[in-house]
Specification:
Elements: H1 24-30, E1 36-40, E2 44-50, E3 59-64, E4 67-81, E5 86-100, E6 111-115, E7 118-124
């Protein structure tokens, strides 16, 4: 027996609620994240993060050991006024992504630039240090 009150499957009503085409901001609040592209050549690691609608001063890039972290705060105010009603909605959220970049990078010379909603980070590599071995005398 199926429910025919809605003349369609009632669970289908919820399918598009979190669809980016219907409400991209709602989807980002539920699963706060941002899309990144990562490339690498012999001299550096390049990270491009799509962060539209976020102010440059709300973005933080940090390096701890071999972990590069990009974090940001996003706020959204929406106000709608008509003759018959007034609606104001506010939301706020934190976004964060972390990437292990390895030990052969130069954390002192990392460059980050934000332009037109895209954060570009260049993580230069340094020459790999040879592993030091030690000979152990057998007694």
């Amino acid at each position: 027996m199926s429910l025919t009150i809605f003349k369609r499957d009632p669970m289908k009503l919820f399918e598009n609620v979190l669809n980016d085409n219907v409400s991209p901001f709602v989807a980002s609040i539920v699963a706060p994240s941002f899309k990144v592209d990562i490339a690498e050549d012999e001299s550096a690691i390049f990270i491009e993060a799509d962060m539209p609608g976020i102010k440059k001063e709300d973005i933080k890039v940090s390096m701890d050991d071999d972990l590069l972290t990009i974090s940001a705060e996003r706020s959204h105010d929406e106000e709608e006024k008509t003759k018959e009603y007034h609606r104001t909605e506010r939301s706020w959220g934190c976004l964060s992504r972390s990437f292990t970049v390895g030990e052969n990078v130069d954390p002192e010379n990392i460059e980050a630039a934000y332009d037109n909603g895209v954060l570009k980070i260049k993580v230069p590599k340094k020459a790999a240090e040879p592993k030091k071995g030690k000979e152990i005398t057998v007694k």
